[in-house]
Amino acid sequence: MAKLKIRRQPARRYEAVYIFDSALEDVTIAEKLEKFHALLGATDEITIEHWGRRALAYKIGRHENGYYAIAHFTIEPKVLPEFERAMKLDGAVIRYLITLYEHELGAPALSDEELEARRRVTDDDDDDEE
Amino acid sequence: MRRQRKPCPITEAGIRYVDYKDDRLLARFITDYGKILPSRLSGVDARHQRQLSKAVKKARYLALLPYVKGQTG
């Protein structure tokens, strides 16, 4: 059996959304965020955007409101399991979602001329569909 | 006879990437019951419809959008 080489994984940019218990005070939430982010060993500065309290679209357990916070960071993927474990164990976090920060991916935005040209092409192709 | 295809509303709005956090935008593409609107009704192009469907599912998980709307009890 061939041995798998363990390659060092490059750091990637992630986006995390947290929903905290809205009954907590802002200071407590900020402290908790700091505690979680300390586990990451981020290579650059972590930006945090606070949405604050808002109503949930449906009840999660007994919660009808949540405190939303969004963070962006660049980290190595291998630290994620520990990070997620910390959040799962913390009762203050109602829910969280970590995704790759995809706005950075893909080709740059099309210019208006390119868009117009593309639209003309798709109009011609239209008959093939359905 | 074929009806002329509608222009994609997401492309028209100049959006390159559909963000799951933009619940106002996503709410335009779900039905009264909270289902994802088919692209044949909304006119969204295939690339954006793929992004949209993923975005709606993430937004539902984060309780930004309901899984089922108009539910009682």
What do these coordinates show?
Chain A is α+β, with helices and mostly antiparallel strands and 130 residues long. Chain A is built from 3 helices and 4 strands. Chain A has a 4-stranded antiparallel β-sheet with strand order 2-3-1-4, covered by helices on one side. In chain A, strand 2 (47-60) and strand 3 (63-75) form a beta hairpin. The longest helix of chain A has 14 residues, at 112-125. The termini of chain A are far apart. Chain B has 73 residues and is an all-alpha fold. Chain B is built from 4 helices and no strands. Chain B is globular, with a radius of gyration of 13 Å. The relative contact order of chain B is 0.23. The interface between A and B is medium-sized, with 24 and 21 residues.
**What is the number of strand segments of chain A?**
4
Helix content of chain B: 25-40%
Number of helices of chain A: 3
The main pleated sheet of chain A reads as: 4 strands, antiparallel
Low-confidence stretches of chain A: 125-130
Briefly note the structural class of the backbone of chain A: alpha+beta
Oligomeric grouping of the chains: heterodimer
Mean pLDDT of chain A: 82
Shape of chain A: extended
Order of helices and strands of chain B: HHHH
The shape of chain B is globular
Please provide the ordered H/E string of secondary-structure elements of chain A. EHEEHEH
Q: Would you identify the regions of chain B where 5 or more consecutive residues have pLDDT less than 50? A: none
| Main β sheet profile of chain B | none
Helix content of chain A: 25-40%
Largest interface chains and counts: A-B, 24 and 21 residues
Summary, kept brief:
Chain A is built from three helices and four strands. Chain A is an alpha+beta fold and 130 residues long.
Key traits:
heterodimer; A: 130 residues; alpha+beta; 4-stranded antiparallel sheet; 3 helices; 28% helix; extended; B: 73 residues; mainly alpha; 40% helix; globular
